[in-house]
Specification:
Length: 375
Amino acid sequence: MSQQQTKNSITLRGSAQIICEYLKYAINSVLFQRGLYPPETFKAEQQYGITLLISEDAQIKSFLTNLLTQSEEWIVKKKVSKLSLIILNVANKEVLECWDFNVQYEDGDAALSKEKNETVSSKELKKIQQEIRDVMLQVAATISYLPFLDCRCSFDVLVHAKTDCDVPEKWAEAEPVAIQNAQNVQFKAFSTGLNKVETVNTRSTQFCSKRVISPETFKAEQQYGITLLISEDAQIKSFLTNLLTQSEEWIVKKKVSKLSLIILNVANKKSLIRRWRCRIVEGKNETVSSKELKKIQQEIRDVMLQVAATISYLPFLDCRCSFDVLVHAKTDCDVPEKWAEAEPVAIQNAQNVQFKAFSTGLNKVETVVSYKLID
């Protein structure tokens, strides 16, 4: 679409169009990633420098077109304070999850507005789209940590508008929604200079998820300039500390070629569902690297964001699972007493996703996930 903008300025109409374009992609992303509709009914599009999924379902496309066309008009007139995407349990109409898109109104560029004789913003479109890209990546990363919706669900969108708005004929007035025992996730905001949009996810903590480890046992940490989740479980922390301490020593001695995180069906230990491989490629014979740490961390950040976004598209783990980590080391390594040698593992009917690599200048690390296709 083409935002209405003159040189170095965005109009009220252009700002509303930018917001509604974001809403189109954000709503579609949630519908896809939360599994409300079959994945084959979505198509990939490049927007904001990333790949996003858009529904091809005629009813959904019509619904969103009507919704966003009307919302754009009301945002131009400063009539809308919020749009809410709600996800409901089809069986009992209980609201399980709500995505609020709060719309705030800003003053724009006073000097330029006076010159143009209308309210405008001088913020560059490229900068706005970068901010939206960061929000979309954060949404994708967060959805991968949300509990699965383990019931048949539907959705609706509520527009919180002023009472003097003329409501379209087929629209219905609705009561505010409330979620019992709710938990909130606040995302980054973006601004056009005329409007600021804040995205918030509110979900019920009452419905269960089939995860390897319960989400409440994790805490958030800032690393590589993004928010990551770290387990607080004592056994997992001890397991990873021992594993990575030994692996570090072997990597220094160039003894390790790969580490594999494997996820197994608890009911059938031989059923391997998913495998994450980190392949370690040795560089030349140098013993030091001149590569800046900041550059290395940026590369790792890009990998982590790509992993988080991809997890949200992987098939759900619809069984109770456990995990293990295999260290692919040379045969002359002294294996710790409590460690056990293991046979190589393979996934039947597997599909692979190759992620970006990062390099320290001495080692290159490539990450691949293999997952079992749904029968």
